[in-house]
Design a protein that fits this description.
The complex is a heterotrimer of chains A (212), B (97) and C (658).
Chain A (H helix, E strand, L loop, with lengths): L2 H8 L17 H31 L9 H4 L2 H26 L3 H31 L8 H34 L3 H33 L1
Helix pairs in contact in A: 2-6, 2-7, 4-5, 4-7, 5-6, 6-7
Chain B lengths: L9 H23 L4 H23 L8 H26 L4
Helix pairs in contact in B: 1-2
Chain C lengths: L13 H23 L3 H9 L4 H30 L9 H35 L8 H20 L27 H29 L12 H33 L12 H35 L6 H14 L15 H13 L1 H15 L8 H24 L1 H7 L3 H31 L5 H27 L16 H31 L38 H8 L13 E3 L5 H17 L3 H19 L6 E3 L1 H14 L9
Antiparallel strand pairs in C: 1-2
Helix pairs in contact in C: 3-4, 3-5, 3-16, 4-5, 4-6, 4-8, 4-14, 5-6, 5-18, 6-7, 6-18, 7-8, 7-9, 8-11, 8-12, 8-14, 9-11, 12-14, 12-15, 14-15, 15-16, 18-19
The chains are: A mainly alpha (212), B mainly alpha (97), C mainly alpha (658).
Chain lengths: 212, 97, 658
Amino acid sequence: MDGKTKKKEWKNMSTNVNTSLPLEFQTEQNRMNILGFWMFLGAEIVLFATLFATYSVLSTRYAGGPTPHELYDIKGVMIETILLLTSSFTCGIAIYEMHRHNKKGLLTWLIITLLLGLGFVGMEISEFIHYVHEGATMQTSAFLSSFFVLLGTHGLHVSMGIGWATMVIIQILKRGLTPVTARKTFIIGLYWHFLDVVWIFIFTFVYLKGLV
Amino acid sequence: MDNHSKGFPKSQVFGFVLSLVLTFAALFVALKTSLSFNTIIWIIGTLAIVQAGLQLFMFMHLKEGEDGNSQTINVIYGVFIAVVTVAGSIWVMSFGM
Amino acid sequence: MGIKWDRFFITGDPLILGSQIAILLTMIGIVVLVSYLKKWKWLWTEWLTTVDHKRIGIMYILVGVLMFFRGGIDGLLMKAQTATPDGQLLDAQHYNEVFTTHGVVMILFMAMPFLIGIMNVIVPLQIGARDVAFPQLNALSFWLTFSGAMLFNISFVIGGSPDAGWTAYFPLAGKEFSPGIGNNFYAVAIQIAGIGTLMTGINFIVTILKMRAKGMTLMKMPMFSWTSFVTSIIIAASFPILTVALALMTFDRIFGTHFFTLSGGGMDMMWVNLFWLWGHPEVYIVVLPAFGMFSEVISTFSRKTLFGYKSMVGSIVGIAILSMLVWVHHFFTMGAGPGVNSIFSITTMMIAIPTGVKMFNWLFTMRKGRIQFTTAMLWALAFVPCFLIGGITGVMLAMGAADYQYHNTLFLVAHFHYVLIPGVVFAVFAGLYYWWPKMFGHMLNEKLGKLHFWLFVIGFNMTFMPMFFLGLNGAVRRAYTYSAESGFGPLMLVSAIGAGILAIGFAFFCYNIYWSARYADRNISSDPWDARTLEWATASPVQFYNFAKIPEVTSLDAFWYMKKKNKGLKFSNDELEEIHMPSNSGLPFIMSIVFGISGFLLVFEWKIAALVAALGILICLAIRSFDYNDGYHVPVDEIKEIEYGWQNKEKGVEKHVN
């Protein structure tokens, strides 16, 4: 490789644009951010695994309080699950539209995703309020402590995701689809799908296991 | 990497339908069958892992981009730590009984 | 509700009153001095807002030195108290606080900042990069560590120090048995610093994967960069566990949950389990970069390529996996069945294998080498036998059945000090003597360095060797006193005198920093040790953009072969191009202060106020999201001028080491 092309490759990380790639992968800084976010997701896997470990160890320690059978309501859980699964799907469509450079389609599907996410968070909050009214609080037993903290951490992640995505939507509206906004949208997408993955395990190992 | 210039998001729709099927299958196995507790946990656990894989590969495109390998190794390592943490904690906290 | 004004300031202890006055005077002194010298603007623009990895690294090292003082004084207090039977210096409560803060400060606020600081300065240079992947995140990492360290340290004058040991085992650390707020400081301050460390891990993984110079494949990467890489991976894998464990502790203490309590179905041993799931990998997090530093130092001063490079890489990657599989050996005495204890005995002994591989690699690197006994090399040489003692006693402790005898005695204390002091502190000293000219453009004085070395190493062995025998004779750890009849007196006294010598050694190090800053020769080569890796291919101290032209790498020990073949060292001016650099930002500093304030309020259980302050964190994140500052470009003329400056100086430098 001669000197000229080599230098070009090592020039600045955010202005050297390779247009043959999808928008979010076009600059070196973008590629680093996406890889960095994957590394963050690796850490998130461990974070949730630790919460799952705690729940698994403590899940039969009721201390005289309510048991999963008395508490969980499968209908509400299924609605939450389908809301989140669908939002993961619509989020996938949003990224798909972004790859087609269809800004309007991207924004529409992204907003649908967030509305579904809001529905999920609303359902979860009302579920929690219901439990507290039944006398099942975080302070009742080890089982409920670990239940509320595991579910609450997931719910907090979803809420943070909604706030974060809203800011990205504002940036897309202000600046259009650029490599930077596309990268931010792509990363939000990764985050959103990841939260769906976590929910699959909550659905299986918290709710279904508790109701078997 | 596929270049979606036009057409219909086939893989997304396929993934979505599949994830719904897996979810309801797990629900059915857990609540409507009379298998033993351990069998049920193994089945629904497997379904959950399949569905997680689906999300990772079909929605999150784990292996795409020039760092696909690093991303894959990272997720595998994360899952390894997760398994050690969960299975290890359960085993150790049972005092090996 | 819940406001505890009466517990705000610690009163009544003359030692602490003295410290309060000293801290107040120091703070006033700093403010007056900075104002008098009119340095506020300089402080803000050059340091507080910097995103330069070298400056962030230097600030980390500064925190490390300060915390070494703090932790060291705790250690000396303990040694003074136990120097004679029935010592009267400290009471039981005060002693509990001192050994708790000694442990936390030394591991989390001394070892970690030192190592991450040196990683920050050196890794981007070694791989031929201009900065880390996310410079602003890097600044945030540092300021969070700083914020956590400060929050932890004020506990001893405001609110009360934690007193349940650095491991903070439940049920002792729970609200029931430790109703004060000391352990809230533990839970919250470590949490804040831990978040910063996690971000560092992610940052360095991406930096090393994506920003290596052209031609530097992973298997041509210097060993210190390799160990930093694996350390970063272990950080990203294990710090989330600590995050969760500390969060659950906070919930138990402040919000009345039942994770680790005795009532409500909680399991106290679950805390121990989670703590060591993080805690054991943490040992490797601190020891791996240290191994990397020894590798660089030994290779440079033996004038040889590192022996068994590939087996070295293999063994550190192996450690990344094995280190996650041994945590139960910290609590064999919990009483788990023989199955659990046997499995973890075996995995623990297995981890001695990759470590043994490394030991032999260092020895064979020195074999037939032309060894130069510089201060840095002396530390590496002393490390080998001292660390071996730590390692061998570790294998003794690894046997579950035998551990019932050693557990909770001074034997264990001696073991881990023999691992961590040679493994981390010696390495940090070796690294600092070795890389000091790269950081500051002058060397540390070798004569003072050797005094520092001998006093420290002799003092260290005198302090901790007797503890092995005391432990075998039944002296338990964390006991504030003992009777004359126990017969522990003489060895305890030897140990205390050793600690004094060790402290004098450290004082020589501090004096060396001062002396060298004032009097050391500035007219030195940018490569004073005739070294082997890329960080020596650029100016000392390093210009802010690191490399005018990124070198191209063809082999391991890239710089050494560039010198031998006289290739790739020089470049003509028309090869230069504009350099893109990130802009400074005050946001990381401000955000960390908000973190600190929110944490402080949470420590005092003022929940609503803490929540309000935490909103400030979200606001900072939002500001960051809308920040589109893309850095700036350094014009070619400026680069030419800077390059001309240091490359011309090279001709007339004095050779210090041949």
